[in-house]
Structure formats: C-alpha cells, structure tokens
Design goal:
With 131 residues, the protein is an alpha+beta fold. The protein has a single domain, classed as 2-Layer Sandwich (STM4215-like). Strands 1, 2, 3, 4, 5, 6 and 7 form a 7-stranded mixed β-sheet that branches.
Length: 131
C-alpha cells in the first residue's frame, strides 16, 4: 500500500493528464522541448498527526503551471481546475482526503528568467486533511 502523500500525488498527476495537460514530475529541461502550457506535480509535505491506530494529518502538494506570454487565461483556467478538484472529498484507492476552500491557495506571476521571454506561471498549493 502506498503512503497517503504518494497516493495523492498520483491522483493529481492522473487528474492533470485526464484534463489533457502535458504533465511532468520536474521542470522540463531545455532539451525536452516541452510545449506550453504544462503542469508540474511537484513538492509534497506530510504533516502527520498519527495516533496508535490511525494515520491522520494533512498532505500539502504544490502544482506549478507554466504558459507562454499569450496563455495567461489558460494558466488561470488550469490553476482553477486543480483548485476546485481539491475542495471537498477526494478519494484514492486506500485513503480519503478532505480539502477546505480556505486551505487552498493560488498565486499568479510572470516569469522572465528565460532571456527575452515572458512566461505566465501559477503556483497552486493544495492542503488536504487525511480522514
């Protein structure tokens, strides 16, 4: 049986692919020629509140969404889909999670780290309770 954080990671990775998004587990390297927009299902954190008989706590997962200079709306729509997918009950094979709207966040920014390029970026932080 997978850990709760791994099952939640897999859940959102599959959600991203099922939504038709190019999905990665890392920031694509230049030689990968990743087309925009794409999503990175990234960092995980388990905040444990285990007892003798159960595993409780929260799983925090970061999702990075990147688009080119003309894809601001697309990036925003993608971020919104992930945000909404984390509200309410989320079921994986072995675990139940629950996400409250106030525990999720979205941050939008423009990135100019690539010379002569403006990229649109969203960082979605999902915080789900293990039930």
């Amino acid at each position: 049986m997978l850990s709760p954080e791994q099952e939640l990671y897999d859940y959102f990775y599959k959600f991203s692919e099922a939504s038709g998004y190019k999905t990665y587990d890392h920031l694509p390297m230049e030689n990968e020629n990743a087309p925009y927009p794409f999503a990175i299902i990234g960092d995980l954190q388990l905040v444990s509140a285990s007892t003798k008989t159960s595993l409780n706590g929260n799983v925090i997962i970061m999702i990075d969404i990147w688009g080119n200079s003309k894809q601001r709306l697309t990036v925003s729509d993608m971020a919104g889909r992930f945000f909404r997918a984390a509200i309410g009950q989320v079921l994986t094979e072995h675990y139940r999670f629950y996400g409250r709207p106030g525990d999720q966040s979205r941050e939008y920014m423009q990135d100019t780290s690539v010379p002569n390029t403006v990229l649109n970026r969203a960082v979605v932080t999902l915080n789900l309770n293990i039930l």
